[in-house]
Amino acid sequence: MKVGIFTLIFRNRSIQEAMRLAKDLGYDGIELWGKEPHISANTTYERAVEIRELAEELGLEIAAIGSYLGGFSYMSDAECEETLEELERYFQVMKWLDTDLIRVGPGGPHAFLAQDYHYAKAAYWMQRCGDLAEEHGIKLAMEIHNGSLVETVEGAERLLDMIRRDNVGVIHDAGNLYITGSDYGEESVERLGEKIFHVHVKDELRIEDESLPGSFINLTARGNELFQQQMLGHGAVDHLPLFRALKNIGYSGYLSAECSAAKPDLYRAEKDLQAIRNLLAQI
User: Fold this and answer.
1) Contacts of residue 204, Cβ cutoff 8 Å, sequence gap at least 6
2) Sign of CA dihedral 63, 148, 76, 130
3) What's the pLDDT at 97?
4) Looking at the chain, which terminus has fewer C-beta neighbours within 10 angstroms, N or C?
């Protein structure tokens, strides 16, 4: 397994500075934040080539793009068509960058509130996206994220079974699964298996004091709950069983650091890399 960083952590820095910091810290690659000033579907050829050449110079792999495209279950058909067109523009940017994995979201609502028609519409448009991506040799990953149809392993399995495209998978996110109260270790990996295209790594903690820095409220099946973003190893999400399970199935992709704790960006990037490396050493 390789260790990357989601450049969202360095959202207030240029992509060039973010890449150099990632290299200096010792990351193997980067997941590009799919918003400017890092990357977007409107990135020019010249700028994309500049980013790719810098990555090559630094020895960093561009593992994926964390785009914010999708939400099909909520959209009108016209909006879905527009999103498909924007996605195709992204595919051209990805060709210039020499990367082949992009995040696309199916939409919501929470899996425990969703109706059959939400899944049906999301599946149809994710199939359309998958077919278009296949023409370009690209894979799509839906992030397991609270507030979406795929906020649980069960929701992800249901939608994947409806989509039935080899190039459409998921981003495993133990922190998000913890929020929904779902298994995020061995069982989740065994069930999702080869459909795990990418892995986000972050730590979270249920709390009772909303004044704590980095606190946020999320609706779950248990009601509104309060959480705090934590440094890896300081929250409640034990990533060791997850990493061990990933190793057991032969996962060779990226573990992408995504820490959003209320700490300076460089501190988060450095300390979470150390924590990930320490966990990998244990397996």
Assistant:
1) 175, 178, 179, 227, 228, 229, 230, 235, 236, 237
2) positive
3) 98
4) C
Q: Which residues have C-beta within 8 Å of that of residue 107, sequence separation ≥ 6? A: 70, 71, 72, 73, 74, 75, 118, 121, 122, 148, 149
CA distance 42 to 63: 19
Q: pTM of the full predicted structure? A: 0.97
Integer Cα distance of 163 and 210 in angstroms: 39
- Reading the block at residue 212, the tokens are 């704590």
Q: Name the one residue in this structure whose structure tokens are 């109706």.
A: 115
φ, ψ of residue 253 to 5 degrees: the values are -85, -155
- How many residues are listed for the chain in this entry? 283
- pLDDT for residue 263: 97
Tokens of 155: 């929701």
Residue 79 and residue 44 in contact, taking contact as beta carbons nearer than 8 Å:
no
Task: Provide the pairing of β-strand 2-6 with 29-33.
Answer: parallel
The answer to whether the CB of 22 falls within 8 A of the CB of 11 is no
Chunk the chain into consecutive blocks of 10 residues (it has 283) and report each block's average pLDDT, rounded to whole numbers.
98 98 98 97 98 98 98 97 98 98 98 97 98 98 98 98 98 98 96 98 96 94 96 98 98 97 98 98 95
DSSP string of 142-211?
Answer: EE--TTSTTSSHHHHHHHHHHH--TTEEEEEEHHHHHHHT---SHHHHHHHGGGEEEEEE-EEEE-S-TT
Residue 96's pLDDT is 98
Tokens 């199935």 appear where?
A: 249
Residues 6+ apart with CB under 8 A from 274: none
- Asked if 181 and 210 touch (Cβ cutoff 8 Å), the reply is no
Q: How many other C-beta atoms can be found within 10 angstroms of the C-beta atom of residue 17?
A: 12
